UniProtKB/TrEMBL annotation:
InterPro entries: ATP_synth_F0_asu (IPR000568), ATP_synth_F0_asu_bact/mt (IPR045083), F0_ATP_A_sf (IPR035908). Keywords: ATP synthesis, Cell membrane, CF(0), Hydrogen ion transport, Ion transport, Membrane, Transmembrane, Transmembrane helix, Transport. This is ATP synthase subunit a. Belongs to the ATPase A chain family. The gene is atpB. Key component of the proton channel; it plays a direct role in the translocation of protons across the membrane. It is a multi-pass membrane protein. The chain crosses the membrane at residues 32-49, 89-112, 118-138, 145-166, 186-208, 220-243.
Length: 260
């Protein structure tokens, strides 16, 4: 059957993890590195330009920026941190959401076509070097060193014997696993989504070029799935940016809360 479908000697090699290891552009600088820098410029420029001349009746650009701000303020920071403490963390939550969103969307933009969060190092650095220090710092500041350790690892109301098992688990979750799982969520979604798009696109191209004439129309099915998955991936990219920002706010809120 394979010989009927494909010309002799042709084999399809599906895309894999190696396709995410892009070559250096110059020196040790790779395309994902440049995209991360570009995303910072895009986010900063957008909010600086859209807020430069604020009007009572907003322009479309101002309206979009205000919508994003209100979404980060009320839908994430206030909801997760609480009305008492959320104000200082609005810029952080907004920046996290915008930064991750732009880097995710790069995967669908022609020429860029790579979601930088599909490299585990970027979301891990964001989680470990930004989110992790912030929520533990505010926790230690609010409760004191011993008080925060107790707050984070000793849930009230459990039987004494349970704490020998529960406290190490809570410590592992709060001080080790939270930043790792926060990074892995967005990484796994971006990696898997982009890999699926690569598979359908490469398969469609391969069938179109190498399949026997009677089987070339099958490539249309592969391209159709690639288009469908592009829309699905766009939705997931937005959702994952939201999840990253809202979980970051949740960790800050949990660190500041009076209860465990």
């Amino acid at each position: 059957m394979g010989a009927l479908v494909l010309a002799a000697g042709d084999t399809f090699t599906p895309p894999g993890a190696g396709d995410f290891n892009l070559p250096s552009i110059f020196g040790q600088v790779t395309k994902p590195m440049l995209l991360v820098v570009l995303s910072v410029i895009i986010v900063a420029a957008y909010f600086l330009i859209s807020s430069r001349k604020l009007k009572i009746v907003p322009s479309r650009g101002q309206f979009a920026a205000e919508y994003l701000y209100n979404f980060a303020r009320n839908g994430m920071a206030r909801e997760q941190i609480g009305s008492k403490d959320f104000q200082p963390f609005i810029p952080l939550v907004l920046a996290l959401f915008s930064f991750v969103l732009v880097n995710n969307i790069f995967g669908l933009i022609p020429f860029f076509q790579f979601p930088t969060m599909a490299h585990i190092g970027f979301p891990l650095a964001l989680s470990v070097l930004v989110v992790y220090p912030v929520y533990h710092f505010v926790g230690f500041k609010r409760h004191g060193f011993v008080g925060y350790l107790k707050h984070a690892t000793v849930p009230p109301g459990a039987p004494l014997a349970i704490y020998f098992l529960l406290t190490p688990i809570e410590f592992l979750q709060k001080f080790v696993l939270n930043p790792v799982t926060l990074a892995i969520r967005v990484f796994a979604a971006m990696f898997a989504g982009h890999l699926i798009l690569l598979v359908f696109t490469a398969a469609g191209e391969f069938l179109l070029v190498n399949a026997a004439p009677a089987f070339k129309p099958i490539s249309v099915v592969s391209f159709a799935f690639a288009i469908l998955m592009t829309f699905v991936e766009a939705l997931i990219q937005v959702i994952q940016a939201y999840v990253f920002a809202v979980l970051s706010a949740n960790y800050i809120g949990a660190a500041l809360a009076e209860d465990h």
